[in-house]
Amino acid sequence: MRPILLNPGPVSLSEGVRAAVARFDLCHREPEYFDLQDAVIHGLLNVYACDPAEWAAVLIGGSGTSALEAMMASLLPADAHLLVIENGVYGERLSRIANIHGIRSQALQYGWNDAIDLPALAGLLATGDFTHVAAGHHETTTGRLNPGEEIAGLCAKYKVRLLLDSVSSFGAEAIPFDHESLQAIAATANKCLHGIPGLAMVLCRQSALQQDIEPRTLSLHLPVWAEQQAKRSTPFTPPVNGLLGLAQALTELEKQGGWKSRRMHYRKLATRVAETCRQLGVREWLPAKDSSCVLRSYHLPAGLTYNQLHDGLKRQGFVIYAGQGKLAAQLFRISTMGEISDYDMARLEQALKLVIAGAEN
Ligand SMILES: Cc1ncc(COP(=O)(O)O)c(C=O)c1O
């Protein structure tokens, strides 16, 4: 039986995407490849109606972290002073990337369960000490949706530039592209877009690419990728099959009504899971109003270890996800991204009842 992936990426694929990935062999120096590359770039800009005169979608080979690293290393000038907002694993990762690349930064640190204190952020930005802010949008550590719109608004107010980790929100949550402060977002094919892993992207302002920044990396320097892609070329071998899959996935997203429909759909599925968990006495880690549509975290049920829960659900055909680091023994996570049918949802409800209620008896 094909397992249904309820981990936060990679996701269960549609039949269309699975077929597209293996449809034909393609050399990345042939015109057919560049037609595909152009279509994927166009499709990515189209998701949030980004004007190509203003925005570039730059494709790179790699995971979501590669996109984060490419964004930070390529777009922060040598004299930047970066404020990194941390309230989970991924915010902390942004600080690690800044440190590795010698980018001067300061962390605004919160606990992994905490919301961002917007007045405190405003106070720091008002000092005029910072040129840039980097933040996670959907903090997948707990499922918290950080307030992208409000952060972008504060950055605009204090004339600070914003870099956003949208790896687990692009394609399903609102992203503040209209705010002048937003310079770039990092994303990946294999989460809310429903493509396969290995292809990542940074959507950034054309003006951000035109800064004269000394390359900090060879293979992740965005201006080189962008310049080559604009000329129907590519600097290095791209994940060709990832592009084949993403082209199909983007077509399906558009046919299904775009990111707002996907958000509605994800919310519906997440609410169904939360309701089943509530009936089983399993408490949500964060209130629904603070959670993304993509993923929710739950307290581990009494008397059940994560491994017991995971293995029991896996035997029923579902792969869930553990908490990270210090949360590993306390919570579990269920993401409802990807191709999940009504039938899968009904089976999941039965499986949760079987594994959780079964353990309590
Ligand atoms: C918000 C966020 N940022 C970054 C990443 C890292 O992505 P990857 O594991 O593809 O490098 C993830 C992965 O789940 C994520 O959820």
What is the terminal-to-terminal distance?
A: 28 Å
Total number of strands: 14
Task: Provide the list of bound ligands, each named once.
Answer: pyridoxal-5'-phosphate
Q: On the 0-100 scale, what is the average pLDDT?
A: 97
Number of continuous helical runs: 12
String of helices and strands: EHHEHEHEHEEEHEEEHHHHEHEEEH
* Principal-axis shape: globular
Rg value: 20 Å
Structure commentary:
The chain is of the alpha/beta class. 41% of the residues lie in helices and 17% in strands. The chain has twelve helices and 14 strands. It has helices at 15-21, 31-47, 64-75, 89-100, 118-126, 148-157, 206-209, 222-230, 240-255, 258-279, 306-315, 342-360; strands at 4-5, 55-61, 82-86, 105-109, 132-136, 138-139, 144-145, 161-165, 182-188, 199-205, 295-299, 318-319, 321-322, 331-335. A hairpin with a 4-residue loop joins strand 6 (138-139) and strand 7. Helix 1 (15-21) packs antiparallel against helix 9 (240-255), helix 2 crosses helix 9 and helix 10 (258-279) runs parallel beside helix 12 (342-360). The longest helix is centred in the C-terminal third of the chain and has 22 residues, at 258-279. Bound molecules: pyridoxal-5'-phosphate. Residues 8-9, 63-65, 68, 90, 136, 138, 140, 165, 167-168, 188 line the site of pyridoxal-5'-phosphate.
Secondary-structure map:
Blueprint: E1 4-5, H1 15-21, H2 31-47, E2 55-61, H3 64-75, E3 82-86, H4 89-100, E4 105-109, H5 118-126, E5 132-136, E6 138-139, E7 144-145, H6 148-157, E8 161-165, E9 182-188, E10 199-205, H7 206-209, H8 222-230, H9 240-255, H10 258-279, E11 295-299, H11 306-315, E12 318-319, E13 321-322, E14 331-335, H12 342-360
Parallel strand pairs: 1-12, 3-4, 3-5, 5-8, 8-9
Antiparallel strand pairs: 2-10, 6-7, 9-10, 11-14, 13-14
Helix pairs in contact: 1-9, 2-9, 5-6, 10-12
The structure holds pyridoxal-5'-phosphate.
